Amino acid sequence: MTIEVDLREIKNLLSELNKKIDVLIEEKETLALMALAEKSLKDFLEKEPDIYTVKDIKTKVSFS
User: Fold this and answer.
1) What share of the chain is helix, strand, coil (3-state, %, to 5)?
2) What's the CA gap between 21 and 15, in Å, rounded?
């Protein structure tokens, strides 16, 4: 193989790695935002009254 072919292959591999790293960073950012939202909404949601009581919830279970 020539140096040009090797360099092209390395460039392609680096491009693929960069794409995968971008996806991982995006997923990490999404998880961080979800954790922040959950933490910031926790106090608010704990103060809110329950819309439904246990009595309101009906469960149908069938055993086969």
Assistant:
1) 75, 0, 25
2) 10
